[in-house]
Design a protein that fits this description.
The chain is built from 8 helices and 18 strands. By secondary structure, the protein is of the alpha+beta class. The chain has a 7-stranded antiparallel sheet, with helices on one face. Strands 5-6-7-8-9-10-11 form a 7-stranded antiparallel sheet. Strands 15-16-17-18 form a 4-stranded antiparallel sheet. About 30% of the residues are buried.
Length: about 375
């Protein structure tokens, strides 16, 4: 799959999320079958908050048309192998969007919000400069779905959908406009959408979008919070400890020298970085980025083990960035590393040197 197709496939997933938010919320007026979430029905002791079927917890949930205390929603396009997972905290705020391609490599999106209230842009670094932008009805009060979504490369090319609703929020019409090199493409196609398979929280699980010969059917799997999940989500220390253990093990056991390990735990972007930084003939990875630049141990440090001396959250960059200080053949070093957990597995998404005692000593 080429980049443009992948970008548009992911953009279509966000379009499905928004179009669903335009549809009627009254299940009694839907023609589609009401499919119960059997996983939810098995738990008879769920929090009463989960029964609030007609109220969004946050604007983020309104944007993605999700009711209840949703932990995550996974969107899948029946026409390709890509998926997008949108995760929320117990209060309904988006905490991460991860795209997984056909090679099962995850990539996290950057999310820009307006006054911490509404999502403005969603972008994946590998798709630069393409991003999905959202436009809202600023006159509306409370939680509202986007009025328009646009997939744009910010250079005169975009694909925009405008949504028209009645006073109850029911979708009346969808308008599509494509712009190429600043010129509007004549388009007489019509759009139609069918949303169905509602679970007991009134969240749709299937959505079919059609525009002339183009037809996309999306399904989404929704996982809800339970009381024990909320306690676990509130405890950030547990996740950070997992990442700390991973980085410590990786460095002290020199697992970064194992190419299979790197391919197993590095995102596509990180592998490209390691490949680009490789300074020798042929193909390889710049494994020295995880340590200092020294090829020899520090004089007088014979027998000293390589070890991580401290690990902490990166207060400057935040997000998935951490800082680890270490000893490398006696030399002191400090690196910034970006690691996130997806499906219980740690993924390295970036590494940067902060200080290198060996390099400083050689420079002197």
């Amino acid at each position: 799959m080429n980049r443009k197709y992948l970008v548009m496939a992911v953009a279509a997933i966000f379009t499905m999320a928004i179009i669903g938010a335009c549809s009627n919320k009254d299940k009694n007026n839907q023609e589609s079958a009401d499919v119960e979430d059997t996983e939810e029905l098995d738990d008879e002791e769920e929090d009463e908050d989960l029964d609030e079927k007609q109220e969004y917890l946050s604007q983020d949930l309104a944007t993605f048309d999700l009711y209840g205390q949703v932990q995550y929603a996974v969107y899948h396009n029946s026409n390709d192998e890509n998926t997008v997972k949108v995760s929320f905290d117990p209060k309904g705020q988006v905490v991460g969007i991860v795209r997984v391609d056909e090679e099962q490599k995850p990539e996290k999106a950057s999310i820009i919000t307006v006054d911490k209230k509404r999502i403005d842009f969603i972008a994946f670094e590998s798709d630069d400069p393409w991003m999905t932008s959202f436009d809202y009805d600023e006159t509306a009060s409370g939680f509202v779905a986007p009025r328009m979504s646009m997939e744009t490369n910010q250079m005169g090319n975009n694909d925009a959908y405008t949504y028209h609703r009645d006073k109850d929020g029911k979708l009346k019409k969808v308008e599509h406009e494509e712009v190429v090199h600043g010129n509007v493409v004549e388009d007489e196609s019509t759009c139609s959408v069918k949303v169905g398979d509602y679970d007991r929280h009134n969240n749709w699980q299937s959505c079919t979008f059609s525009r002339d010969e183009y037809k996309y059917t999306y399904t989404r799997t929704i996982k809800y919070y339970r009381s024990d999940d909320m306690e676990e989500a509130a405890d950030k220390t547990k996740q950070e400890q997992t990442i700390k253990n991973f980085v410590t093990d990786m460095y002290e056991k020199q697992r970064y020298e194992d190419y299979d390990f790197l391919r197993e735990h590095c995102t596509r972007k990180m592998l490209e970085k390691l490949s680009e930084e490789y300074e020798y003939d042929g193909e390889g990875y710049a494994i020295w980025l995880f340590r200092t630049s020294s090829q020899d141990g520090k004089p007088g440090s014979e027998g000293m083990k390589n070890k991580v001396t401290s690990f902490s959250k990166d207060q400057k960059n935040g997000g998935d960035w951490f800082v680890y200080k270490f000893l490398d053949g006696g030399w002191r070093g400090e690196n910034r590393i970006k690691v996130f957990i997806y499906e219980g597995k740690c993924w390295i998404d970036g590494v940067e040197r902060i200080s290198d005692e060996a390099a400083a000593a050689y420079a002197e």
